[in-house]
Design brief:
By secondary structure, the chain is α/β, with parallel strands linked by helices. Helices cover 32% and strands 25% of the residues. It has two domains: 144 residues, Endonuclease, Chain A (2-Layer Sandwich); 90 residues, OB fold (Dihydrolipoamide Acetyltransferase, E2P), CATH 2.40.50.140. It has a seven-stranded mixed β-sheet, with helices on both faces. A five-stranded mixed β-sheet has the order 10-11-12-15-14, with no helix packed on it. This is phospholipase D.
């Protein structure tokens, strides 16, 4: 009887130890993670800034919409401290007037900002990871997301979770290497003094504002409602394309009318995935 009693006591103690271990583990995780609801304090931006300011080695970010200047300043401070600072933003959002000032400010400070290179879909992640922690959720880095919208932001220092976010953002950055976030705004240029090049020559004139002439083989609209003027039957090997983002399409009317036609467009040539392109934001960029 005594023997059975000792075994029972041993089992009870073992169960207590195991449950205590789980409780301790859960308590530690609890203290490493915070879930912030935007309208409680209306300061989700400060949680992002605090995380960036505590970083000592690197800051990687992926963000869909970015207009908060104070977060941009925190990223610039991290760069000035000698940290590696890299990020990716959505290509369509980065072409918008409301986001371009932030993107240009980061690039001017020496911060690498990429965009997605795939023609379909958007870059919809909203996360930042540093050597000290991570923050991710539905929260865009905007004033409305900070003080008006219902948003969730998870902020944590748990190493396992941090490493998972780090792996994903590094994967996204590597997969979209070469996608440039440098997109000019609406281009107010006249035809006078501009040189005309064939679309086959466009890649030799990156950075130049010019007239590009060629036959539009196909007018293609992706699932994200971005329209491309393709000048070759295989767009992947074509040296040039023109792009109209969804936000500007209502200015143009029927874009299919240009398919099969030789047209001349004007604008600043930029590099995208190793090929030349012009972003069309106003109809007067299509000269003829």
């Amino acid at each position: 009887m005594k023997r059975q009693y000792k075994i029972l006591i041993g089992i009870i103690l073992l169960l207590a130890a195991v449950s205590g271990g789980f409780a301790l583990s859960g308590n530690l995780i609890h203290h490493r993670i915070r879930i912030l609801y935007s309208l409680d304090q209306k300061q989700n931006d400060q949680a992002i800034i605090d995380l960036i300011d505590r970083a000592q080695d690197y800051v990687y970010f992926a963000i869909y919409t970015f207009t908060k200047d104070n977060i941009a300043e925190a990223l610039i401070r991290a760069k000035q401290r000698g940290l590696e600072v890299r990020g990716i933003a959505d290509r369509g959002q980065s072409a918008e007037d409301f986001q371009q000032p932030i993107i240009q400010k980061l690039i001017a400070a020496g911060i690498s900002v990429q965009t997605q290179t795939h023609p379909d879909g958007i870059m919809h992640i909203k996360a930042v990871v540093t050597d000290q922690g991570y923050a991710a959720g539905s929260y865009n880095w905007t004033s409305s997301a900070t003080t008006v919208n219902d948003e969730i932001l998870e902020v944590g220092t748990d190493k396992y979770l941090r490493d998972q976010y780090l792996r994903v953002i590094r994967q996204v950055l590597a997969a979209n290497e070469g996608g440039s976030a440098v997109v000019s705004g609406e281009q107010v240029v006249t035809d006078g003094g501009l040189k005309t090049y064939s679309y086959t020559e466009a890649s030799s004139h990156i950075g130049e504002t010019a007239l590009i002439e060629g036959k539009v083989v196909e007018v293609f609209t992706s699932s994200s409602n971005t329209t491309f003027f393709d000048y070759c039957s295989n767009y992947k090997s074509c040296p040039f394309s023109a792009v109209i983002f969804s936000s500007a399409k209502n200015k143009f009317g029927d874009l299919k009318q240009y398919q099969g036609r030789v047209i001349t467009i004007k604008g600043k040539l930029q590099s995208y995935q190793g090929r030349a392109e012009i972003v069309l934001t106003t109809p007067d960029q299509i000269v003829k």
